[in-house]
Amino acid sequence: MVKCSFSGKEIAPGKGLMYVKSDGKILYFAGRKEEKNWKMRKAQNVAWTAEYRKAKKERMAAAKHEKKKDTSVKKETSKSQTKKSASKKN
Question: What is the pTM of this model?
Answer without folding.
Answer: 0.52
